[in-house]
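Input record (one chain):
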Amino acid sequence: MLNNFMSNNLLIDPPLTNNKFTWSNIRNPLMFSRIDRFLYNTSWEDSFKPHTTKTTSDHFPLICEDSTLSWGPAPFRLNKIVLNDLEFKRNMERWWTDSNQSGHPGFSFIQKLKSLANFIKPWQNEKLHSLKSTKEDLIKEVDSIDKKEIDSFLTQEESNRRLSLKNDLNEDGSAQNTNNNISSTFNKLAPSLYPFKEEEIKDVINSFEGKKAPGPDGFPLAFFKTFWPLLKMDIMEIFKDFFEKGVINKNINNTYIALIAKKKDYYLPKDFRPISFTTSIYKIIAKSLANRLKQFLIETISGNQLAFVKNRQITDAILMANEALDYWKVKKTKGFILKLDIEKAFDKLN
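The corresponding structure, as predicted from the sequence alone:
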């Protein structure tokens, strides 16, 4: 059946150069199979590369590359693996102090991160190069053992060593009576009534998973979790400035946009869903505000809105629809039900 499909569609199943299997059960009795395949036409033939070494999976990864497009130099990204490095933690305090900047809190914080990135980048590259060399050596050893396994020469000691290698590869006065005076007084008073506190911001940072891709700053939330004691003074200055002025500095609001296909066949811009990669400090501010606002949502959002509000359930809408149908039946009243699925509803409806 597979052969007929390939023949009818002029597809090629390329041979593998390293070995003929792509899966093993990794237990006794050993079983091997080729259950993963690339099927392509002749125009792809020069792009095919053999499968790579299986490390933590029971499948051998298959890689097919067909792009020569140059995206230019990659932006800085802090690799989360260095956050647990003792040498990195020792250097961070010195690097952060040496990265000191002046000016608006939001601007100076982003500039400090850029300066910090210049300190981290060469150190990180050297560290990751060393780790890469170690990983490559481990992969070679795993590959060698895999080949022995296929030839049925795997000893128990080698099997234990392979599992050990695969573990090694795994991986924050008088009354005011003018508009201007009233506004000025309120702006001065409000921050003292409900200021952002260190513990509040720390809890917000710790509530993030920390593994998601960073934005233009290059620093994931795991970095802010790890170095909260070092960064907290600068972060609290940003919150103080934002609370008093009500404006986020544009340097904090920088964003990368990525397009995610909404369906299998995509040709037009509307077939994609844009997602934004924002700076970590923006995420911290946004979630801090959201945590405060959600305490009042149930009082301010209409009772007709049943989804995405705490203590309300969208299933209540189903119950109300059933009640309406039953009412019409009992009263023998005419009526109709209209179900709308509005494109970009959040952009178009108030």
